[in-house]
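Hi,

I'm pasting everything inline rather than attaching a file, because the server keeps stripping attachments. The sequence lines come first, and each chain or strand is labelled.
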Amino acid sequence: MHEFQLIKKYFSNLSKNNKSSLNLNDDVFFDKSKNLVVSVDTYIEGVHFINFKKPELVIKKIIRSSISDLICKGVDPKYYFISASGNKKTFSSSNLEKISNSLKDEQRKFNIILCGGDTVLSNKLSFTVTSIGFSKNIIFRNNAKINDDIYVTGNLGDSYVGLKVLKKQININQKLNKFFVNKYFKPDLNLKLAKKLINFANTSIDVSDGLITDLDKLINKQKLTYKLSLINIPISANLKKLLISKKLDKIKYVSQGDDYQILFTANKFKSSIINKTAKSLGIKISKIGIICSNNEKSEVTDQKGNKISLKNMGYYHKF
Amino acid sequence: MHEFQLIKKYFSNLSKNNKSSLNLNDDVFFDKSKNLVVSVDTYIEGVHFINFKKPELVIKKIIRSSISDLICKGVDPKYYFISASGNKKTFSSSNLEKISNSLKDEQRKFNIILCGGDTVLSNKLSFTVTSIGFSKNIIFRNNAKINDDIYVTGNLGDSYVGLKVLKKQININQKLNKFFVNKYFKPDLNLKLAKKLINFANTSIDVSDGLITDLDKLINKQKLTYKLSLINIPISANLKKLLISKKLDKIKYVSQGDDYQILFTANKFKSSIINKTAKSLGIKISKIGIICSNNEKSEVTDQKGNKISLKNMGYYHKF
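And the predicted assembly:
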């Protein structure tokens, strides 16, 4: 059973009288009367990160992954809480100092403040991060309109290559290995975009589980489909070179997740303001497809217009 | 290193410009400008609960333990988030149904709503609960005054006996075993007291790690001491009988934690309103001691006025 089927079956009824929890079918909780936005995520060694050899990098990744949930909804994160479970080695003075310094960097970069948490001894390493922001409005899931353009920020796929480098499944050269690993641990979050996004996006999500998986999630309660054009899915110059030199399949690299870019849809008339915003903030926003009615089928097409198989794309937590 | 020494050394500086986080030296986070109160706690199998044979009871215990942090500060909990890590067996249909029904009970009893969370696969079972409430004020730690009376709600020690029954370290009879185990899994929280407490308590904490440990925590930044009278520490009739029949040491049973009763101090002049409140709410509030100046030494005395040794009382997470 997929994670969200499980949530729906057993837990949706526990929040049914509470509009704010969005039927547990969104990445955040939003209490409009209090302007409160909350996200809770758990990260486990071996599942969400490989190991804890670089605590300072792991901690950056989990913080960014957590606040990304707020940013993609048009909300500035303000507070965060970390609950850490680990053994004595995890909490060695040397590790704690690295974690503390790393958090200091993140606090400065994203204007967030540590507000509490918990530390417990366990033979299994895991972190739960609670992120809180305040906003009068958020961008909801399941609010795409037919004919909306589909956009994504930044580049996709670099993080996945970084993961493969870390797992020693790929080896390029020292410089490029470092480039991709950095993208894995320190995804570029578009904090400045958060407050602007609300002006043009109809619906949005961050790409954590993979482009296709997250696009499916984004509209999972709507009777809508999508058409994506593979060539328009943005990748870095480094990934482009790698795909060519190693004859790799682009679709397999751009739909694996961990990108933490923002995927959103907007009315066609918004394209000019979107382009202007991208320019003024100095960020990349690419139009990658279109939302269609349920009469059509969701598809990704290559340069020649051929459909691409989407089997086994992206990441689901199965139970 | 104790948990709060660790927090102080490595993480206090990350919240130093933020009064709301109370220097990470309280059980809750309080943002006065937003009336927001947040508590985050992690519960691990083998540490905070023995096993998951009774999911419906474990889930009650962790929810109550989490919202207890808010209630003891004078705040009604409103929202909660659960992040659960476990294996496929943990998330079996049968377990999920039990958890869901158990949460439904707790929601009704304490007027709280599930608002989100996370579910991840892991070979180690753990839960992180984030509880949120709204209040203009809270009762802070480290705000006791010299000559304050020290009070505690309900009874102490029943939960510890329940734990010993579960661990098969003690066996009384079926009926009493059940009584104590119930106190362990379903501590009595004084929700109705929360809003009244703020009228008379100078400082407060919930008894989770043990009476002595938590009293030390309550005033750890103050140059104060305390005198407790063992005979006044409230225990149930069932525990009283057990202590007599098995010739057990009262102090060892009332200072082990997991009670989730409220420990607070108040000015002597408040004793009449405290007694009235207890009566009108139908709850037990016992005066157990007094706050003293730093010229004296903290001590617990027995009926004859003899000092009792307090070595190895209560529970600390050591790293």
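Chain A has ten helices and eleven strands.

If the labels don't parse on your end, tell me and I'll reformat.
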